[in-house]
Amino acid sequence: MRELYHNAFSTCSQKVRLVLAEKGLEFVSHEIDLLGGGQHDPEYVKLNPNHVVPTLVDEGDVLTESTLINEYLDDAYPDPPMRPTGAAARHASRMWTQKLDHSVHAATGIVTFAIGPRVALLQQPEAVREANINSIPEPARRAARRSVIEHGVGAPEFAGAIKTMVGLLQEMDVALGNREWLSGDSFGLADAALLPYVLRLDQLAMGPVIEARPHLAEWLGRVQALSAYQVAVTDWLVAPIVELFRTQGEEVWSQVEPLTRL
Ligand SMILES: N[C@@H](CCC(=O)N[C@@H](CS)C(=O)NCC(=O)O)C(=O)O
User: Fold this and answer.
1) All domains of the chain, ordered by start, with CATH?
2) CB of residue 65 inside a 6 A radius of ligand 1
3) pLDDT exceeds cutoff 90 at 262
4) Ligand 1 mean position to 102 CA, how many Å?
5) Cα of 13 to ligand 1 centre, how many Å?
6) Which residues are CB-neighbours of 76 under 8 A, at least 6 positions away?
7) pLDDT tens track for 141-155
8) How many whole angstroms from 177 Cα to the centroid of ligand 1?
9) Which one, of 146, 160, 159, lies nearest residue 113 by Cα?
10) CB atoms within 10 A of CB 16
11) Whole-number Å distance between alpha carbons of 132 and 134
12) Nearest CA to ligand 1 atom 10
């Protein structure tokens, strides 16, 4: 029995669903409503004390942290292998996932909440919104969430976060100049991990920052052509939220564009 607690739009959930799909592993789905505060439900917090998705429960083992979940999946279900075999290549693959965990993931949260779901959150009763923000366990993440909901792309955290994300795109474009995949010879853990972060910028109507980087744009096309992408990403997205992200992104693009120049 395999159960995944996740969210359709969450980057960390998408990266785990990509690995599950690539390995042909099915799961019982428990979607957590992140805007409604489902991640703070005491029953869920027993599984994931950090109040975040995803959580994988595999044959009774409770697994958190998306990068580690994906490494677990590759250890437990090695067919097809999703990490290179050489030690140096494996190190290079882990450098990408470490970059997400150290800086890019937090930056993506700032960029996303400053643009995408902000209007929906501002329409919630203030008491509900505040209760959900106050339930975020880490003070820094709590403060950043409050700031971007209040100030949008004008929040002091926003410019640095966008630079971190575009910096990642730039590094990927250079790396992909002489190879097709970040994980080695085939689509693997590093590719699955980075895809949702590139996609997020596309969803927020920042396509030009991707199109300006041809190797990155070709890689994105390659990932999107995989059947795992359809199963793990496209099939979960719901049109009204895709539309909300796009229209909100278009609305602020003139303010965001100057910040995307490195
Ligand atoms: N390091 C964690 C981060 C998980 C995380 O931040 N998940 C986000 C969605 S991508 C979440 O659940 N956020 C809840 C919230 O924003 O309150 C992981 O990789 O699993």
Assistant:
1) 2-76 (3.40.30.10), 87-260 (1.20.1050.10)
2) yes
3) no
4) 13
5) 8
6) 58
7) 999 999 999 999 999
8) 31
9) 146
10) 29
11) 5
12) 10
Q: How far is CA 164 from CA 17, 108, 157, 170, 222, in A?
A: 24, 9, 11, 10, 24
Tally of CB atoms within 10 A around 93: 23
Locate 76 and state its tokens. Answer: 């437990």
The alpha carbon of 101 and the centre of ligand 1 are apart by a number of angstroms equal to: 11
Nearest CA to ligand 1 atom 11: 52
Q: What is the pLDDT of residues 229-256, one digit of tens each?
A: 999 999 999 999 999 999 999 999 999 9
pTM score above 0.90: yes
Compute the mean pLDDT over every residue in the chain, rounded to the nearest whole number: 98
Judge contact between 84 and 90, C-beta under 8 A. Answer: yes
- Other beta carbons within 10 angstroms of residue 165's beta carbon come to 24
Place of tokens 């005491």: 42
Q: Between β-strands 28-31 and 55-58, what pairing exists: parallel, antiparallel or unpaired? A: unpaired
- 146: which residues sit within 8 A by CB, 6+ positions away? 133
Q: Which of 4, 48, 53, 241 to mutate to test the pocket of ligand 1 (most atoms within 8 A of CB)?
A: 53
3-state SS record for the chain = CEEEEECCCCHHHHHHHHHHHHCCCCCEEEECCCCCCHHHCHHHHHHCCCCCCCEEEECCEEEECHHHHHHHHHHHCCCCCCCCCCHHHHHHHHHHHHHHHHHHHHHHHHHHHHHCCHHHHHHCCHHHHHHHHHCCCCHHHHHHHHHHHHHHHHCCCHHHHHHHHHHHHHHHHHHCCCCCCCCCCCCCHHHHHHHHHHHHHHHCCCHHHHHCCHHHHHHHHHHHCCHHHHHHCHHHCCHHHHHHHHHHHHHHHHHHHHHHCC
